[in-house]
Backbone:
C-alpha cells in the first residue's frame, strides 16, 4: 500500500517510540521491525530492508543513547523523504555532520544553534567564548557555499555580522572563527627549538663519528636525529663534540687571543668563526694554539663575551652514542632536539605479525592490532637495523588488521622487535576530538551507505575510489576541522558535478 512521505515519517516516529520502551520482547521487536519495513516501503518501494533492520536493531538497543536514536530516526526519515537538487548539499552536510558530530568543537569552530535566514546579520551559537569584535568568520550556507564576514558585536551567544547573509544558513551549519583559530594556535604553539644542521661528508654503516656544518648550541648528551641514506632516521645522543666550543672568558675589541672551552680537533691555519656581542660573526684564521688559548691571525673588531660561540667549521665532528645502522649521505639532516617542547601526542604501538613481518619494499603491513589507527596518522616503524622509519598511513583495514604506508619500508622489519607506533597529535584542540553523539559501528556504516547512495544517484559517474576514500576519512579520529570541511565540500562537488537531472532530481536514501 502506497503512503505519503509525511505519513511514513509519522509512523516511523511511533514505531521507534515503541521500540524504545523497556521490556520489549524479541517477538514484539520483530513485529515492530516488520511494521517499519511496511511503513517505509509504502513510501519507498525500493527501500533497503537490510538497512531498516540494522537501524531498528540499533534503536532497540537499550545501551544506545537518546541522542544516537535521534540520528537513527533521521536516517529512517531520509529513506522516505526525497532529497532534491535544492537540498542535496545540505543533506550531504547533515549526514557528514552526524558522522563527525563534534563536542567540544575545535577552538574557533562551532555550529549555528538556530536557522539564520537570507539577509540576517545576527547568528546564534551555542557559545561565543573566545570570540571578539572584529574577528573574521566563515558561515557555511545551505547551498554549500562559505560566506566570509566579520563580527561587529557580540551579545551573549548572538554574533552580529558586518554583512547580511546572502542566503539561508540552517541550524547545525558550520561556523568558523578563523581569527580565533589563529589566535589560539599562536598562543598554544611553542617553538620547536630544534637545532638543524647537515652532514658535510657522507658516512658509512657502522660509523659513530659524523662531520657537520655547525654544532652551535649543541651539547654532550643532547638527543639527535640523523637522516639515513635509506630514508629512515636514527635517534641517538651526542657523546662528544670537537671543533665547536664557546669562549670561557670575555674578549675585548682588538684582542687577538681568546680562551675557549676546548681546542680538540683544531689546528693552526684552520678558518674559524666567532660570534660577537653585536650579533655579527667574525671570520679569521687560527695563528697558533696554546692549551685552550687560541691566537688569531686578526684581532676582534668588537667584544665577544663569555659563552660566545667559537667554531672551526673545517672540522666540526660529533661522536654519537650509537653507530649508524645504515650509511648517511653528504648533506643528510642532523637535528638536535634538546629544546623541543614535549609534543602533545597520544602514541600507541602494535607489533607486526611475526611471522611474516615485513621485508624491504613492503608498503602493506599486517599488525597484531590496528585499533585506534586512522588514515593520515603519522607512524614510526622500528626496523631490524635499529633505525626508525617515519611515514604516514594511507589506509587502515580494521578487518584484516593491515595498514598501508605512504612510502615503502627502506629495509626489513622481520624481527620480533618490529613495531608500528602511531603518533596522534593533540596540539590543536580539534585535531583529535570526541564525537558529540557516540554512534555504533553499524550506524556509522549505515550513514556512510546513505551518503554513498545519495551521491551515487546524483552522479552515477562519480569516481568510486574518491568517494569511498572521502567517506572513510569522515570518521577519522584525527581529522581536523579544516580537513573535515574540505571533505564535505568535495562530496557536495562530487554529487553536483554529475547531476544531469537538475531541478527534477529526487533521491531516496
Residues:
Amino acid at each position: 500500500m502506497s503512503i505519503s512521505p509525511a505519513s511514513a515519517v509519522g509512523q516511523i516516529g511511533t514505531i521507534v517510540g515503541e521500540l524504545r520502551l523497556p521490556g520489549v520482547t524479541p517477538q514484539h521487536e520483530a513485529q515492530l521491525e516488520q511494521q517499519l519495513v511496511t511503513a517505509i516501503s509504502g513510501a519507498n518501494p525500493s527501500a533497503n530492508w537490510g538497512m531498516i533492520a540494522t537501524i531498528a536493531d540499533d534503536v532497540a538497543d537499550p545501551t544506545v543513547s537518546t541522542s544516537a536514536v535521534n540520528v537513527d530516526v533521521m536516517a529512517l526519515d531520509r529513506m522516505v523523504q526525497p532529497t532534491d537538487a535544492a537540498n542535496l548539499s545540505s543533506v550531504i552536510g547533515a549526514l557528514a555532520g552526524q558522522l563527525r558530530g563534534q563536542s567540544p568543537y575545535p577552538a574557533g569552530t562551532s555550529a549555528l544553534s538556530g536557522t539564520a535566514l537570507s539577509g540576517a546579520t545576527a547568528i546564534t551559537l551555542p557559545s561565543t567564548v573566545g570570540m571578539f569584535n572584529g574577528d573574521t568568520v566563515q558561515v557555511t550556507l545551505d547551498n554549500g557555499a562559505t560566506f566570509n564576514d566579520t563580527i561587529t558585536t557580540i551579545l551573549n551567544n548572538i554574533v552580529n555580522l558586518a554583512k547580511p547573509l546572502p542566503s539561508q544558513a540552517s541550524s547545525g551549519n558550520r561556523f568558523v572563527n578563523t581569527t580565533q583559530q589563529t589566535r589560539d594556535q599562536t598562543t598554544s604553539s611553542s617553538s620547536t627549538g630544534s637545532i638543524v644542521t647537515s652532514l658535510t661528508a657522507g658516512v658509512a654503516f657502522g660509523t659513530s663519528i659524523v662531520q657537520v656544518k655547525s654544532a652551535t648550541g649543541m651539547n654532550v648528551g643532547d638527543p639527535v636525529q640523523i637522516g639515513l641514506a635509506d630514508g629512515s632516521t636514527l635517534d641517538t645522543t651526542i657523546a662528544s663534540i670537537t671543533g665547536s666550543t664557546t669562549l670561557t672568558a670575555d674578549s675585548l675589541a682588538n684582542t687577538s687571543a681568546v680562551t675557549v672551552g676546548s681546542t680538540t680537533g683544531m689546528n693552526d691555519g684552520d678558518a674559524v668563526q666567532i660570534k660577537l656581542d653585536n650579533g655579527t660573526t667574525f671570520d679569521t684564521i687560527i695563528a697558533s694554539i696554546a692549551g685552550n688559548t687560541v691566537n688569531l691571525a686578526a684581532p676582534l673588531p668588537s667584544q665577544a663575551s663569555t659563552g660566545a660561540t667559537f667554531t672551526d667549521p673545517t672540522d666540526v665532528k660529533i661522536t654519537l652514542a650509537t653507530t649508524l645502522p645504515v650509511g648517511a649521505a653528504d648533506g643528510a639532516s642532523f637535528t638536535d632536539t634538546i629544546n623541543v617542547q614535549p609534543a602533545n601526542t597520544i602514541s600507541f604501538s602494535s607489533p607486526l605479525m611475526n611471522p611474516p613481518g615485513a621485508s624491504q619494499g613492503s608498503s602493506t603491513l599486517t599488525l597484531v592490532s590496528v585499533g585506534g589507527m586512522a588514515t593520515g596518522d603519522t607512524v614510526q616503524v622500528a626496523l631490524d637495523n635499529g633505525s626508525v622509519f617515519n611515514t604516514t598511513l594511507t589506509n587502515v583495514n580494521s578487518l584484516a588488521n593491515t595498514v598501508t604506508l605512504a612510502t615503502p619500508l627502506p629495509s626489513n622489519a622481520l624481527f620480533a622487535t618490529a613495531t608500528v607506533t602511531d603518533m596522534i597529535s593533540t596540539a590543536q584542540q580539534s585535531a583529535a576530538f570526541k564525537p558529540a553523539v557516540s554512534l555504533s559501528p553499524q550506524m556509522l556504516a549505515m550513514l556512510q551507505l546513505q551518503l554513498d547512495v545519495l551521491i551515487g544517484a546524483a552522479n552515477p559517474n562519480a569516481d568510486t575510489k574518491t568517494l569511498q576514500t572521502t567517506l572513510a576519512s569522515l570518521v577519522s579520529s584525527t581529522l581536523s576541522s579544516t580537513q573535515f570541511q574540505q571533505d564535505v565540500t568535495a562530496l557536495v562537488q562530487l554529487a553536483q558535478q554529475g547531476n544531469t537531472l537538475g531541478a527534477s532530481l529526487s533521491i531516496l536514501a
